[in-house]
Amino acid sequence: MKKIPFFLMLAIAGWSLTACDESFDDYAQPVVYPQEATITIDGFEATPTAAASSNINLGTMTEEAIQLFTLKQGTLPEGVTLENVRLEAWPADKTESIATKVKATEDGMVTKEELANLVYTFYGKKATERIFTAKLFADAVKGTEALLITLGDFTLRVTPEEVENPYYYVYGNATSAKKEDAYKTIMTPDPTSDVIFSYTTKYVSSGDMKVWNSKYWQEGVKTNDFSKLYGSGEEKPTSYKGLTGKLEQGRNSSIFSPTKEYYTFTIDLEALTYTWTKLEDQNPTSYDVISLIGIGGDWNNDVDMEPADKAKHNWFAKVTIAAETQLKFRANHDWAANWGFGDSDGEWTVNDDIWAKTLKQDAKNIVVPAGTYYVYFCDITGAAHFVPTE
Questions:
Q1: Average pLDDT, stretch 283-306?
Q2: Residue 48: strand, helix, or coil
Q3: How far, CA to CA in Å, does 133 sit from each of 30, 153, 156, 340?
Q4: How far apart are CA 145 and CA 114, in angstroms?
């Protein structure tokens, strides 16, 4: 009797066939709305573990892998094997994202590295809980033919390991060449990303910039530890003045601006790149002093900030606020130029997620909780920071 081919046997069973090469990877990647139908098989079922339904904190996870599901396997036709078990996951709040593959074993184990890579595919490296929608798939394989099988749906909650704290500082010839002063020149986070930071001023095109991540600028200064310093990754950094370039961690090498003009210097710590964006307005308004006013209800006396860069557009102060207070930033001890919140949220929430805001002129008062802060303000961009001190 003639043997029925595998693909014909599957067709008789009503299964959809997806061909693949010997790597079993030549299938249409499942997305939020799968490009082609998958099938379920009676007797094959995956059950999430308790760990899968709880927050998986990679920072406290001591094992190299964690069990996310148990797999009950039914009976496959003779010669057919179940291979390439994996999760396809995408952010729950980004429903149109294309899913990414997370390798898993048949006994439901997924490595810490795979979970970290899942987070980094869609987000930065901030230690914030990320929620993913996931589907579990496997291939029913015989020879060079494979069938895509769906085994179940999951919700994953993953918090990445906190690699570095969220404060990045710059120093160089455009600000101060003294590294012990670099805590006065903080970078502004991009509101859409956890790994992009910028600093706007006039640059001098000569050893302009280095970036150092070190909590409140203390540890590295004391020990000359350059492991958290980001410098130019170019082969000849002293002669390279391009608009984009390579960033290298642990390299004590300055980055040079293209020309002696106003730029926004931006770093991407995931791509390890930097970018110079020239400002359209090369003559921004200058002020003799920027100050805080209203602390403790005192609207008559200013608390002056000191210039943190040579162009006098970035400002710094250390202030202690005894009790929750309202305040504003203003220029030259006058109300002609003043800055406050430009949205409906007038309170300054100090936590790991919200520590910088963009202010607007003539906007409402700012509400700041009690505490001692390093305060930063850029009068070009309106970026302001209240960073709690230890």
A1: 97
A2: strand
A3: 12, 8, 6, 39
A4: 27
> What is the per-residue pLDDT for 163?
58
Cα(119)–Cα(122) distance, integer angstroms: 6
Whether the full predicted model's pTM is greater than 0.85, yes or no, is: no
What's the chain's average pLDDT?
A: 81
- Region 274-284: mean pLDDT is 97
Q: How far is CA 7 from each of CA 16, 76, 125, 141, 148, rounded to the nearest angstrom? A: 9, 14, 45, 11, 13
Q: By CB neighbour count within 10 A (0-12 exposed, 13-18 middle, 19+ buried), where does 138 fall?
A: buried
Encoded tokens for 262: 């106003």
Nearest CA-CA partner of 357 in 326, 390, 387, 324? 387
Q: Answer yes or no: are the C-beta atoms of 364 and 341 closer than 8 Å.
A: yes
Say if residue 216's pLDDT is above 60: no
- CA 160, CA 144: separation in Å to the nearest integer? 38
Q: Give the pair of three-digit tokens for residue 53.
A: 């339904």
Q: Among residues 311, 314, 164, 172, which one has the least CA distance to residue 231? A: 172
Please report, as a single letter, which amino acid is at residue 62.
T
Q: Is the pLDDT of residue 274 over 70?
A: yes
CA–CA dist 198, 179 (Å, integer): 18
Q: What burial class does residue 336 get, using C-beta atoms within 10 Å of its C-beta: 0-12 exposed, 13-18 middle, 19+ buried?
A: exposed
